[in-house]
Amino acid sequence: MYLPTIRQLQYLLALKKHGSFSRAAQASLVTQSTLSAGIKELEALLGVTVVERTKRKVIFTPFGEEIVAQAGAVVSAAEELVHLAQSRTAPLTGPLRLGVIPTIGPFLLPRVMRPLKRSYPKLQLFLTEDSTEHLIGLLNAGRLDAALIALPYDLPQLNMEKICEDPLLFATSNPQLSVQAAHEPIKNLEGDNLLLLEEGHCLRDHVLEACRPAKDLSASEFGATSLLTLVQMVGAGLGSTMIPQLAVEAGILKGTSVKAIPLHPPPIREIVLVWRLSSTRTGDFKKLADILREHAPS
């Protein structure tokens, strides 16, 4: 029995990801004709059509979609073999695909990148920024090796290392509410519009849960696309919100009229590194967690 090659499956995954033969070939560092020939050979070997070719776009057949899902698992397993061999000679060597949510990435990773590069110069880190839900899906599909996310979140069974706790601070440009928040529990705050990130951000759920007892903090129908947008909205007097201390320490409020006030008791999210139970790189991820912990805010 003749079997598909890993390279053919990698071409197929690149085509699925990029949506065109030219972009997939560029990402795979081969010519378009080489990639196209590899996929035709795969189709001939399987005896089925995997993709429909048109002048404007590439359409995967229903069977092709099934093949893509299986191809991802096969390529991921092959990569795990390589990583296992590398880990026996040197830790954190070669490519590592790390997912990170946007309320962590810009504020924690700049603290870590230089010391990580100094300690592990042969590590090739590839970052994907997305929502927790999408990152966990990519992780379980083998398209990510690990992910940095925030708890609480209803997770499937995964290996996990705690990095740090990140308190949520009350952020407002309203002087009266600022004074009140410094002395009153959040359940007593009233009289302002609660601004949130758009649906899909786990921080939105964390804030809603923390503010749920509040008497008169009603959530705005408008959802910001980023923490930076959220801060600008608060600075414009459109309402108040809650910001992770990690972002405040990174300077997100600089140049604005927004004040961040610690709450009593403080709502806290927990930043964790997660990876698949089946991964052979647990040793690598524990070392990565050590670096993250060392340079995260205390």
Short summary:
With 298 residues, the chain is α/β, with parallel strands linked by helices.
* Domains, number: 3
Count of distinct strands: 11
Main sheet overview: 7 strands, mixed
User: Which class of secondary structure composition applies to the elements?
Assistant: alpha/beta
User: Distance N terminus to C terminus?
Assistant: 57 Å
Which architecture of the largest domain would the CATH scheme give at its second level? 3-Layer(aba) Sandwich
CATH topology of the largest domain: D-Maltodextrin-Binding Protein, domain 2
Shape: elongated
Q: Helix fraction? A: 40-55%
CATH class of the largest domain: Alpha Beta
Count of runs of 4 or more consecutive helical residues: 11
Task: Please tell me the overall pLDDT.
Answer: 85
Keywords for this entry:
single chain, D-Maltodextrin-Binding Protein, domain 2, alpha/beta, Arc Repressor Mutant, subunit A, 24% strand, 298 residues, two-stranded antiparallel ribbon, 7-stranded mixed sheet, 3 domains, 11 helices
